[in-house]
């Protein structure tokens, strides 16, 4: 995927969209999700996982269409995994970006990633005209003659960027000036982005961006100059902790969040008990909750990198692994002004490529798996930890479920009573208490 190129320059900046009066179009803290309330669905089964994010826009027609698309994707996947029994979990990941232009055009782009026997990526875009109250396609948005101009520019761009790959028949067919070739697009304030699925122009998906300014004769809206500012300079006054190296200590770790109601409840309990934990956040979620990330740091917790979209890294190319890691590092840095030094790969899956891609960051797995996603029962989770905990345990939980938050709240005070100091994984490592092989 090439979209990192586009995202990076904007990651550390917030967009001021300058809209007013319409609650649909208020400023949103995430520059890649300008509109809609993010909805997350993440569930694990024995042989597969579903991890789906999509926006709720509060425009009935758009929400219904989004729901329909998501339902179709899920249904097709669930049918496919029904007979899948292999050890490695099958995955469905759906992530999105959303943009608004002129208080009128709403664009949503979905990245769909399926890994069952093989990996499959696809892109889906929806563009809605909130004035005409209709979904629009290329011919609705662009004037006559636009297709020739855009195709010419796109072909020139690809010939420069991928000089050795543009001589194929596939390229010629899929880049020809026909609206159907350019129908996957989003409208942004200052540019239009066209997407090409894997297997169309090239074996992999690519995108072409054109500035609104360059094609203003052919479109019905005016480009905007996008103003930016840096939102968060520094976090001061981090708490100084008293850790006794001679007393037992354990590290509670929470994966897959943040989830506001559960994560904040866990943070409350940690604070009350003078305890810390490590939160291995997903970049895709973290980008929506910078204030929760800030709170984690201010209260002495550690934030770890759990990748951007929860794909199994061992099934990805090195470039894609690095993108998953880097994008999340930047997201966390944007919110907290610091980069995580620990990574937990989804499912704990790692190989040499993952280790290389981690650079100087440590890969952290766990020594005590609560299996909270399986039992979804606070008592079962608490009992398992109380029975199995020992000095140096790294305890795996998920701040995704009410039962996990309930269990964590009980465990935080119980473990303190049992004489354990609750520290971060990096602290556990610094005091030489981490179980061998669990922090690499
Ligand atoms: Zn996870």
Architecture overview:
It is a single chain. The protein is of the alpha/beta class and 440 residues long. Helix content is 33%, strand content 23%. It has helices spanning 4-11, 60-81, 138-141, 146-161, 169-175, 260-272, 283-286, 290-298, 318-336, 352-357, 372-375, 378-388, 402-417, 425-430, and strands at 14-16, 37-44, 48-56, 90-101, 105-115, 119-129, 134-135, 185-187, 191-196, 206-211, 227-229, 249-255, 278-281, 302-305, 342-343, 362-363, 368-369, 394-398, 421-422. The strands form five sheets. It has a six-stranded mixed beta sheet, covered by helices on one side. Strands 12, 13, 14, 17, 18 and 19 form a six-stranded parallel beta sheet that branches. Helix 6 runs parallel beside helix 13 (402-417). The two termini are 28 Å apart. The structure holds zinc ion. The site of zinc ion (ZN) has 5 residues, from loops.
Tally of individual helices? 14
Mean pLDDT: 87
Strand order of the largest sheet: 2-3-4-5-6-7
Gyration radius from CA atoms, angstroms: 23 Å
- Helical content stands at 25-40%
The unreliable regions are: 1-23, 226-238
Please describe the biggest sheet, giving its number of strands, its sense, and whether it closes into a barrel: 6 strands, mixed
Structural class assignment: alpha/beta
First-residue to last-residue Cα separation: 28 Å
> Which ions and ligands are bound to the chains?
zinc ion
């Amino acid at each position: 995927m090439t979209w990192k190129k586009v995202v990076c320059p904007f990651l550390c900046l917030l967009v001021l969209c300058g809209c007013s009066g319409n609650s649909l179009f208020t400023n949103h803290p995430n520059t890649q999700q300008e509109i809609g309330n993010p909805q997350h669905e993440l569930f694990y089964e024995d042989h597969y996982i579903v991890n789906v994010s999509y926006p709720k826009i509060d425009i009935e027609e758009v929400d219904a269409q989004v729901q329909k698309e998501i339902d179709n994707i899920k249904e097709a996947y669930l049918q496919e995994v029904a007979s899948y029994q292999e050890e490695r979990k099958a995955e469905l990941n759906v992530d999105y970006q959303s943009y608004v232009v002129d208080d009128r055009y709403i664009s949503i782009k979905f990245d769909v990633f399926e890994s069952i026997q093989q990996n499959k990526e696809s892109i889906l875009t929806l563009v809605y005209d909130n004035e005409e109250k209709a979904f629009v396609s290329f011919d609705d948005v662009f004037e006559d003659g636009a297709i020739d101009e855009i195709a010419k520019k796109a072909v020139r761009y690809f010939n420069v960027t991928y000089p050795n790959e543009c001589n194929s028949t596939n390229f010629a067919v899929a880049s020809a000036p026909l609206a159907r070739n350019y129908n996957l697009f989003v409208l942004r304030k200052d540019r239009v982005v066209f997407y090409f699925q894997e297997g169309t122009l090239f074996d992999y998906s690519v995108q072409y961006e054109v500035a609104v300014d360059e094609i203003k004769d052919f479109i019905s809206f005016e480009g905007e100059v996008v103003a930016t500012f840096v939102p968060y300079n520094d976090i001061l006054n981090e708490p100084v902790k008293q850790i006794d190296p001679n007393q037992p200590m354990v590290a509670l770790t929470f994966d897959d969040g943040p989830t506001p109601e559960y994560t904040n409840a866990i943070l409350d309990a940690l604070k009350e008990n003078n305890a810390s934990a490590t939160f291995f956040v997903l970049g895709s979620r973290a980008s929506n909750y910078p204030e929760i990330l800030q709170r984690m740091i201010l209260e002495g917790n550690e934030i770890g990198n759990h990748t951007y979209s929860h794909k199994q890294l061992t099934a990805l190319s090195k470039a894609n692994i690095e993108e998953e890691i880097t994008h999340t590092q930047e997201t966390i840095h944007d919110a907290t002004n610091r980069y995580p030094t620990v990574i937990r790969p989804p499912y704990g899956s790692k190989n040499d490529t993952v280790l290389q891609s981690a650079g100087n960051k440590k890969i952290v797995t766990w020594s005590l798996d609560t299996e909270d996603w399986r039992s979804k029962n606070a008592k079962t989770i608490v009992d398992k930890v109380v029975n199995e905990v020992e000095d140096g345990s790294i305890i795996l939980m998920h701040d995704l479920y009410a039962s996990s938050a309930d269990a964590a709240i009980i465990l935080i005070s119980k473990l303190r009573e049992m004489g354990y100091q609750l520290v971060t994984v990096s602290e556990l490592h610094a005091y030489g208490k981490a179980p061998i092989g669990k922090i690499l």
